[in-house]
Structures are given as C-alpha cells and as structure tokens.
Amino acid sequence: MVTPLGIAGDGHNNPQIHGGPRKAILLITSEGIDELKQQGFPLYHGALGENITTRGLDRRAVRVGQRYRVGDVLLQITKLRTPCDTLSVYGPAIKKAVYDQEVKAGNVASPVWGLGGFYASVLQPGTIRPGDPILLPEHRKGYITVDRRFLPSEDVFWLRIQGDSMIGRGIFDGDFVMIQPGTDVEEGMIIAARFGEDATVKTYTHRDGSIVLVPANPADQEIIVKDDDDFAIVGKVCGVFRPFQEVHQHEELALVE
Hints:
Umud Fragment, subunit A, 3 helices, seven-stranded antiparallel sheet, 15 strands, single chain, M1 Pyruvate Kinase, Domain 3, six-stranded mixed sheet, mainly beta, elongated, about 30% strand
C-alpha cells in the first residue's frame, strides 16, 4: 500500500534528509542497476534503497514534473536522487558513477542521468503489485472528447482495437475502448492486459487457480496466464467508441509569398 508519505510501514534512517511528501518514493530502473553491476558494483534490486524497481523505463527520458500511473497509484517525479550515505557501503566510486557535475546542473544529456534514481510524490495513494505497468499519460497520440457523465475517473485513456477477438461482446476491429487504469478487476469484466510488449483486451476469469483471458470469438483461443509469464493487468474496459469516419490530419503547406 502506498500512502502520501511512501510505502506503508516503510521508514527512513534520516528523516531530515529522506522522506516527506516530495520524496515519498524512490524509483530506480533495473537497467540502471545492471549498468552499475557491469561496472563491478555488487548490486541487486533494492540495494540502493529504492521503493520501486522498474523494467523497460528509459531513465534518460524521465523528467522532473512527469506523472506516472503505477497500478492504482499516481506518482509525480519531483527531483533526482543525490548521493547519500546509503551508497557508501559500495565504496566512494559509486557516488561518482551515479552523479556528476552535468547531472547536478540539470543536463539530461549526462550519460549517468537517473542512474541514482528519482524521487516522487504520491498524488493518488493506492496499491502497487509486482508486474504492474507504468503508464506515462503524456504519451498520448490524440484525444477523444467525452461528456464527464460517462467518465469513471479523470485518468482514463483509450486503446485502439486491432482484430476481432471480442466481436461477441460488441468490440470490433478499429474501435477505441476506454480504459480505467488499475488492477482491481472482477470476474467477467473486460480488461486490458499486458503480455511483454503487447497489449490485449479480453474477458477476465479464473480456472483451476489460474487467470484465464477469454475471447468473444470462437475462432480465437483463450489465454491461460502462467506464473512465469510477463503479464500485468492494465485496467478495465468501461466504454467503446466506434468512428464511422476518420479524418487524418496532414501537414499544412507553406505559402509562397
């Protein structure tokens, strides 16, 4: 459980330096940890004091002010982590490995940008589970305007359907489905889920202790989620938009004067 002050039950060795609403969460990428391990530092997930270790998030693209949806939680990046005594157990060299003068000056072009992690505030408390996807709302390709009466929450987003696996439940190829982010789903709901780098929309159910994703098309096969699958629930489907006509925007032509 994540609260406005961080992970429930977690503490800070030095509350004068760590913690507080603006530094409630420390986030570090697993790829960054791997980079430091290749330099000879005997690290592992959690070794740098992070609360959240990510996979697939490019540390070089993270910026102060960005908001990330992780499970039910909404985080906002507030600052880069500066070296502290927590790192001293790995020797003095690690502080230089994760923080240089360019990072101190705010230069995102530094090769060590974000290696030491990022602090974040908790804008919306909730639950984070292992494998939950990290969503950056700013990475939208466009917008669909909807009356607020039909929005279950302010942070919904849309996915475009490719294929006809859900035609039996009224979802067709080319439709946009509205997704309410979160992992709190119930039997029989239509959900969006992530498998590795791919996303799928299916009916959520259980069988013999396993999660089963059921299509609504007899031509498609159900998906039985195995324990070692790279799988995460993204959210539940709460609406469908079907355009009958779509206008593609073209670049404006320059006028010759």
